[in-house]
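ARCHIVE RECORD
Type: protein–small molecule complex
Small molecule: 4'-deoxy-4'-aminopyridoxal-5'-phosphate
Source of inputs: curated submission
Record status: active
Notes field left blank by submitter.
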Amino acid sequence: MGRVAYVNGQYVPHSHAAVHIEDRGYQFSDGVYEVCEVWKGQIVDQTAHLDRLDRSLRELQIASPMSRGALSQVMKEVISLNRVKNGLIYMQVTRGVAPRDHYFPPAGTPVSLVMTAKSVSSSKTDHIAAKGVGVITVEENRWDRVDIKTVGLLPNVLAKQKAKEAGAREAWFVDKNGLITEGGSTNAWIILKDGTLVTRPANHGILKGITRGVVLKLAEMKGFTVEERGFSLGEAQNAQEVFLTSASGLVMPVVKINECILGDGTPGPMVQDLRKSFHDAAELIKL
Ligand code: PMP
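STRUCTURE (tokenized, with ligand):
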């Protein structure tokens, strides 16, 4: 059997999975999403991801598609139907299908829920991490509510494409104060020469990454000094080590920012260690 997707109550072949053309996610980006890692047959940080999904839905006044228990069941089913041991699960909830009109549809309009899962070779991601990645900087041009994980990702798409065309993997948004906010799909970190870990506080201007939260916990376990504050491009280019975090890339070393090669251009030991021990601090739920 090939890939299977969950679409509004049904498990369907991935190649035929579809939502209606008047789905508000399609027409207005009126929806939210989550991506969780599947690692060695376990769901990583499910509780934190579903807590964030609830928050995103609440902030946008979109109803929850189903109870947490039911959602967990669908997640398990999608992962097992796709035989994913290592990979990613994606879920998206939109305000549902209704005749195109900016106003919210009538109360009681069912929300849409779509879920997919795919295998990702961990050796492929590890290979990228072993070399480290490049980052470019772009002007922050997103809306004020990037703390909500909406499917409205056009600025992120354009920034990441620009990075790709420049031979980099990620684009960092820089705010009007000259501080890095975050990447197109990752949070940004630096380690200073004295070993202090620095990352922007998650109260404004960034998505509060679940991986970010786990790395903060891991850093505490390892006795790092952590400063949650903004940092500039210059500070990053002069840092000891630099990295990105996300559920799909975990802890990803950065070896180049714009034209500046960091250190000897290879991932440093602290970032490599944080990457290696990441799952020690994560919540792991067996399928
Ligand atoms: N920032 C943005 C803009 C993202 O899209 C993501 C990934 N979804 C992250 C940060 C990292 O979040 P997480 O660690 O929860 O994957």
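CURATOR ANNOTATION: The longest helix spans residues 46-59.
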